[in-house]
Amino acid sequence: MSGRLISGRYELSQQIGQGGMGQVWTAYDQRLDRRVAVKLLRPDRVAGGEADELRRRFVRECRVTAQVDHPGLVTVHDAGSDGDDLFLVMQHVDGTDLADHIERHKPYPWPWAVAVAAQLCAVLCAVHAVPIVHRDLKPRNVMVKPDGTLTVLDLGVASVMDTDTTRLTHTGSPIGSPAYMAPEQAMGGAVGPYTDLYALGILLYELLSGNVPFDGATVLGVLHSHLYETPIPVRGKRPEIPEPLEALVNRLLAKEPGDRPDSAQEVYEALAPLLPGRGTPTGMLDPTRPFLRPGAPWPDRAGTPTPVPVPPRPTAPPSAEVPVALSEVARAVDDVKRLLGEGRVTQAVDLLGAILPTAEAQHGPRSTVVRTLRKQYAATLMDDGQYRRALPELRRLADERSAEAGQADPASLQFRYEMAQCLEQLGEPAAALAEYRSLLPFYENQYVASTVGDPGAALELRRRIGQLLLALGDRAGAHDTLARLLYDAERVHGPGHPLPGEIRRTLHWLGQVRG
What we know:
By secondary structure, this protein is α+β, with helices and mostly antiparallel strands. The protein is built from 21 helices and 9 strands.
């Protein structure tokens, strides 16, 4: 496949990685005359009609992750489809992956481990603020550049392949890297920032001890260890490691998400006193270098010139100006529809946010026009992954509709359902669970079911409750919820439907690990 031209622009050069559903290639961008990395995914390897859903989610996740601006994240240049393949074009990162870096420098100096973890915390802070969960943080997805800085790869791609699409594999095995996978993720529970912090703890343990804390011959064996075994303390292997660092690792590896640190910011603050002071790096690819010599040029490499740092990408001017004031709201609504039809969701969000104050001034805050715009604004914010901004809009819509039409009104229930989805995406499982549970009686009421016209809505809500119970460590409650859900899902959809199949696999995992 070397020499193949992707999207009429990217010429594949050398394959540098391969997985179950895709490949990674170095490539040449003919238009801008630069090297890039191209990841190819094969949705045609997914059974049935799920391939179209995978394509849709892939494009959405690439768009959302491209909005994250942080020097520790690989830059996304382009994404789309080419024939049967989905492609993601990324910055070509010069350096070595962290797994090879660990292997070359065993035993890994503990100050290096602190520097690596601190850099990863900085990246996770930016990612979780969006909010995005990486879901597959591991050494192979981290590059160490010549100046010692780290670059995290595969942001967004893992979320397409994880959780909601586990049924796409039809294998019954969790997607991801079991050695670095949090228990709630492996069993199909809801994921959040706490899931990435667990993976960070596994990675930090490996840096300090030379091995992952939980290993085994089978995926089930590894999962059982994650759930029930206590790792050997890292100071038992290397006494020179500071006690506060060992305590932090233990907190990150807590079995229940609520026992882990609250955020990547908290982890960074715990690591900061352990970072090396100003001085001279010990050599090339030294991850302490950014702390010892902040902003220093890249080191010379024998036989090769010093690389010239790539200047930051200029911010392209928007293709259409966002109006500050509009005399005709209808014209702006037409522009929003056009932008959404062209897939320009971020621009549509900006336009809707700009026209709302004008519409309120012209028509009144409770007018049908304004409420329609605000509903579109909230829905577009969610589609753009901006859950933090969507949440107050949905709460206001839900409160107003409920006050006028009652709590059982289908529109009010839908706004509250979307509020719970935002809370779930923002890594607040307890709040999301409480909201879903308060909604469940309404969705199970025959009047609401007949009004909404979707008997599967209550089943999906119960599935989310089961996933959140798993995320919160209530495996007995999750098992009871999902077992009852399986019976009803088979009755409504039939045993061959993807939903009962997904529930059966989760119950199988729960049954296997309960003892």
